[in-house]
Write a structure and sequence with these properties.
Two copies of one chain form a homodimer.
Chain A: H1 8-12, H2 17-28, E1 33-34, H3 35-45, H4 52-64, E2 68-72, E3 78-82, E4 91-94, E5 100-102, H5 112-119, E6 122-133
Parallel strand pairs in A: 4-6
Antiparallel strand pairs in A: 1-3, 2-3, 4-5
Helix pairs in contact in A: 2-3, 2-4, 3-4
Bound molecules: manganese (II) ion (2 copies) and zinc ion (2 copies).
The site of one zinc ion has 7 residues of chain B, from strand 6.
Chain A binds a DNA duplex (30 and 30 nucleotides) through residues 16-18, 34-36, 50-54, 56-57, 76-78.
DNA sequence: GTAGAATTGAAAATCATTTTCAAAAGCGAC
DNA sequence: GTCGCTTTTGAAAATGATTTTCAATTCTAC
């Protein structure tokens, strides 16, 4: 997981228009969004916003650049959100209201060397999301 | 995550034929299998084995009974495997050979009370899978 | 401007999973 | 056994997110 501490602004110039639009949208949101949601939201405010295909492509490159992370919740739909460039984090996802709490530290990274020692397995990535009921919904 | 310490044998009687066939197949395998793989394997050895729809339904009920767990690897395909009834575990999945190491302890369950205290969030489930390169493939 | 490269998007394809719905199997009552 | 009813099964169709195609548009360099 190499970090890429490039400023969003610096990177922004090299992005395609579609990617810039998607990035801008994500900057305004604090929650996990599906590709289709992003597409709808963009189209709502601008008739000529990027098409769905372009949104998918934009998300792919933003993820590759480390500006956005893709989150797997186990339903068949990926979610996306802006992250600190090169970093990632996990969530507590409320099954009632679907809101999620962004965790500040990764529980898995700390374990990587122990896993290496015990199993000879070199960790390159992971999925971790926690489900339950949040304070408000309880 | 209530445990259901019913013996596989005891439960087996109440299962549909389709579920029994799927369960038997899973008992012979030590690896994660997709629904389609399970279906093919069954059909290979028996022309009249359950159809794909039945396999999906069988997996659903076996998971509900706690005999089988469903594993999310982030590609669009769920994997299934036999577990100690009512329990679950996570994996180190090799990206080269696709083999996976079954971990013996869950890293998340220990954290549930801390999460409750810190966030007022009542954990009911989670996804956790770790990717990388195994000893042999390295 | 002009040629060649990169970007875009509508429509079609893909593919795991779910739904439909009618046939087959199981089952208790008689 | 047979009748009537419930459960199970499975082929085919539907679903739905994502990917692929491919032709049109936009950029970029010269
Ligand atoms: Mn987040
Ligand atoms: Mn396992
Ligand atoms: Zn992490
Ligand atoms: Zn666990």
């Amino acid at each position: 997981m190499a970090k890429q501490p490039q400023s969003t602004v610096a990177v922004n110039a090299r992005l395609t228009k579609g990617s810039q639009k998607v990035l801008q949208l994500l900057e305004k949101r604090n929650s996990l969004s599906t590709a289709q949601e992003i597409h709808s939201l963009l189209r709502n405010e601008d008739e000529s916003a990027p098409g769905l295909t372009t949104v998918y492509r934009a998300l792919e490159s933003l993820v590759a650049l480390g500006l956005v992370q893709s989150v797997e919740l186990g339903d068949g739909e990926k979610r996306f959100e802006l992250v600190t460039p090169g970093e990632h984090h996990h969530h507590l996802v409320c099954e009632r209201c679907r809101e999620s709490i962004h965790l500040d530290q990764c529980l898995v990274e700390d374990l990587e060397s122990a896993i290496k020692t015990k199993y000879g397995f070199a960790v390159t990535g992971h999925i971790l999301e926690i489900f339950g009921v949040c304070k408000r919904c309880k």
